[in-house]
Write a structure and sequence with these properties.
The protein is mostly helical and 167 residues long. It is built from five helices and no strands.
Length: 167
């Protein structure tokens, strides 16, 4: 089980690094496009690159952000719950989260195969949609595994949500 959890953490970190690299490329393309646009030579397809880069940045950064507990939590009601009901609620929400992210991942896979069958491509560069769709499917699958990792922590009594308040 430790190897599984370490593997999830490592893959999440790799995707996070890729997201950071893509974000840097997006910033540089935007900067160059703005400068070149002033001279009458905009970068063809820059919006297309930024749009798909944004999908990759979002999709690839969410699992590691979840692992780090970087999401915003509004816990006004949760602060008032006793330990047992809070733990039960944490277990239920994690199970629902796993189900939702696996469902989303599966639907991205189905959509990816549909884009292959129909031959959908981007407008400017004629890049197939399928690789981007499958990358998002992988990201949401890993998000489901990351929430599973979190569920295991909750069941072991190592709820990282409690650690967050201590830091």
């Amino acid at each position: 089980m430790r190897a599984f959890m370490a593997g999830i953490k490592k893959i999440d970190g790799i995707l996070y690094a890729i997201a950071g690299g893509v974000l840097v490329v997006m910033v540089l393309i935007t900067l160059c496009d703005v400068i070149l646009r002033n001279f009458g030579h905009p970068i063809t397809g820059s919006m297309e690159i930024i749009m798909y880069g944004g999908a990759i940045v979002f999709g690839f950064s969410v699992p590691f952000a979840t692992f780090l507990k970087a999401q915003v939590q509004v816990d006004i009601i949760l602060q008032r719950l006793k330990e047992k009901p809070l733990r039960a609620l944490n277990v239920v929400t994690r199970i629902l989260g796993i189900a939702v992210f696996l469902f989303i991942s599966w639907n991205f896979v189905v959509y990816g195969f549909d884009t292959i069958k129909t031959g959908e491509v981007t407008a400017s560069f004629r890049i197939p949609y399928a690789p981007i769709v499958f990358a998002l499917a992988l990201s949401f699958l890993l998000q489901g595994f990351t929430v599973l990792y979190d569920l295991i922590e909750v069941l072991r009594g190592e709820d990282a949500g409690a650690k967050e308040g201590e830091e």
